[in-house]
Design a protein that fits this description.
about 130 residues, mainly alpha, single chain, RNA binding, PPR_rpt, about 75% helix, 8 helices, repeat, E_motif
C-alpha cells in the first residue's frame, strides 16, 4: 500500500483542528511519529497549536510551544494569538504570545492593536496606550 507522508499528516492535523477533534489530533500527531517514523516539522506543530487554541486550551498550547524541540516561528505564535482572540483566553498568555510575535516582527501592528483591545476589554485603560 501507499504510505502517508508529512504533507498528508499536515492535512489530517489541520482537518482535526478545523473540526474540533482534539483527541484525534493527538492520536495522529503521535501515530505519525511512532507508526510512520515521520518527524514533526513546524507545520505539524502549528496545526497542533491551532487545534489546542481553537478548543480554548491556550495555556496547554503555550506549554506545548515552549516544549517543542524546534524554535517556534511567526506562524506558530500567530496561531496561538488567534486562539487567544477567538476564545478570549488568558490575558497573561495573550501578553506572552504578543511579546514573542513583536520580538519576531516589531512592525506587525496587529499585535499592538490586539493588546490594546484586550486591555480595553479588561478595563486596563493605562495599558491601552
Amino acid at each position: 500500500g501507499i504510505l502517508p507522508n508529512d504533507v498528508v499528516f499536515v492535512s489530517v492535523l489541520s482537518a482535526c483542528s478545523h473540526c474540533g477533534l482534539e483527541d484525534d489530533g493527538w492520536y495522529w500527531f503521535y501515530c505519525m511519529q511512532e507508526e510512520y517514523g515521520i518527524k514533526p516539522g513546524l507545520a505539524h506543530y502549528a496545526c497542533m497549536v491551532d487545534l489546542l487554541s481553537r478548543q480554548g486550551n491556550v495555556e496547554e498550547a503555550l506549554g506545548f510551544v515552549y516544549n517543542m524541540p524546534v524554535e517556534p516561528d511567526k506562524r506558530i505564535w500567530g496561531s496561538l494569538l488567534a486562539g487567544c482572540r477567538a476564545t478570549r483566553g488568558s490575558v497573561e498568555v495573550a501578553e506572552q504570545v504578543a511579546k514573542q510575535l513583536i520580538g519576531l516582527d516589531p512592525n506587525n501592528t496587529s499585535c499592538y492593536v490586539f493588546l490594546s483591545n484586550l486591555y480595553a476589554q479588561q478595563g486596563r485603560w493605562d495599558d491601552v496606550e
